[in-house]
Amino acid sequence: MSVHICGDGQARSTARATINRYVCPGCDGTGRDPGDGGRCYRCAGTQLVDDVHDPGPGHPDRPVKLPRPPAVMKASCVDCAYRLGSPEDVPDSGRPDDAGTPFFCHHGMHRLENEAGEVGYAPAAWAGGLPLGYMVCAGWWDHIVEGGPAPVRPFRDPGGSDRGETSERAR
């Protein structure tokens, strides 16, 4: 199981995120309705939207996709939780399958186990319910947020990660 567990052995509450992937096609990112100049009804004046219907090339409402945020890893790790065969690739593993719940790369986190035998990773610092200084998992972003396939290459334990009984190498 891969959940973020605090130093006291208790799981942290999971923060929710709002993910905007497109510039609003209704106002072209101005936040203002082109008809009356008031607040855009599609984005409520925020200039960004999460999901839009793509009407196809040449249509005036064609969505403009935002770039990948710099806080997201560039590529999935060899031992990414979203790779086939990872220890976290089991039902009820704590790995979120939800675009509103950010999942952070475990690299650089302290690996620990609670009294129930559940293995998790604890960051050194928290801020507002989020692990401070850790990158968002590229596997989660690509598979859950972008709706693409899970990472193609299967899980590989690179060794030295102190995975113990849960690793492919230990089996």
Describe it.
- There is one protein chain.
- The protein is low in regular secondary structure and 171 residues long.
- The chain has two domains: 1-17 and 68-171, no CATH class; 21-65, no CATH class.
- The protein has one helix and seven strands, in the order E-E-E-E-E-E-E-H.
- A hairpin with a 5-residue loop joins strand 4 and strand 5.
- The longest helix is centred in the last third of the chain and has 8 residues, at 138-145.
The major pleated sheet works out as: 3 strands, antiparallel
Helix content: under 10%
**Alpha carbon gyration radius:** 19 Å
Report the end-to-end length measured between terminal Cα atoms.
16 Å
Structural class: little secondary structure
Rough shape? elongated
Low-confidence runs: 1-11, 163-171
Order of helices and strands: EEEEEEEH
Number of domains: 2
Q: Which percent band covers the strand fraction?
A: 5-15%
| Largest sheet, spatial ordering of strands | 2-1-3
Mean pLDDT level: 75
